[in-house]
Amino acid sequence: MFVRDLDDVTGTEDDVETPNWRSKRLLLAEHGAGFSVHETTLQANTVNDFWYAHHVEAVFITHGEGELTDQETGKTYLLRPGTVYLLDGHEHHQLRPTTEMRAVCVFNPPLTGREVHDEDGVYPLITDR
Known about the structure:
Elements: H1 6-9, E1 15-17, E2 21-27, E3 36-42, E4 48-51, E5 56-63, E6 66-70, E7 76-79, E8 84-87, E9 92-97, E10 101-108
Antiparallel strand pairs: 1-2, 2-3, 3-10, 4-9, 5-8, 5-10, 6-7, 6-9
């Protein structure tokens, strides 16, 4: 059994912050679950371009509101608490929170915690724990 609290992560190397977002990485590849779990906070009125070319991501919005745009189709979805979305086709996407927005994110394959977005918003595939 594994138990970890957000307070256990805050201020550690598993607490990653940029000007637009902060990711608290609760469950990582090293924990052996086959997926990773993160709490991500996105700053209001920011534009965030992401593309997970090597990962499937499920996102559950817990706080705040914003928009998700599929960059390939141009379709935009409203996001609010209780909304879930799944990026199972490696879609290029853009998040535009209108308020501070918090979400629980699940990645498969799991992230190691060492990933950094490249210029296209892609996380590299790191397979070692």
